[in-house]
Amino acid sequence: MPRASAWRDLVAPGIASLIALAILLGLGIWQIERKTWKEELIARIVRQTRAEPVAPPAPDAWDPARDEFRHVRVSGRFANDREALVHGLAAGETPGRALQGYYVITPLLRADGGTVLINRGFVPTELKAQADRRDGLIEGPTTVTGILRASEPRAMFVPEADPARGEWFNRDVAGIAAARGITDAAPYLIEADAVPGQTTWPRGGQLKVDLPNNHLQYAFTWFALAACLIGVFGVFAYRRLHDSDAAGTVKE
Length: 252
Description:
Blueprint: H1 4-9, H2 11-50, H3 64-67, E1 71-78, E2 84-91, E3 98-110, E4 115-124, E5 141-150, E6 167-168, H4 173-179, E7 185-192, H5 215-251
Parallel strand pairs: 2-6, 4-7
Antiparallel strand pairs: 1-3, 1-5, 2-3, 3-4, 5-7
């Protein structure tokens, strides 16, 4: 029979293992909850992007958690002389290959007042200069449909913008508006829809709803680690108790 001291020796590692087990199980359950949240988020985004376009919210009523990815329609005139370029990539005609270039952000002076930034779409690097894509400029009244997006914060390793050259590396709504002297810009921008049969640049419809949802894999990993912990501690405890039992038998 195992000695009492052998059982006492298991108290400290047993408590540590229980704490670790609780943490691992908690992380696994959290990932299951995150999976449910992500599925609901993806469903909401897909539903909103496919809905009939509506008027965008008033600037003071904008709520990113509620309004981002809504399909909207707005009318006005483009201020083509105040466009900005955001570095980016777009899918090429060859599968698996991406084009380097820019997203063209152009202020739209709304017919009902105010200004909203429109991401008109992508242009390849060789068409960076507006003079090389004059056929893609829209003069006069126009109507744009697209997807509402929140301003994009600059990540740690993203280069700073160069307002003097009109080049940016993230969709900084406030920064672009300030650099272009726009004082009444809405706190969001609109990603323009694709235009069927379009042959000019820029080309909209670049927004792809492709949010990763790997939470089930993460949950499996945490639960598997929890199972491994149980197995390792079980073997450890078994050997500790039986080694103690064997030692006691030999001594007798």
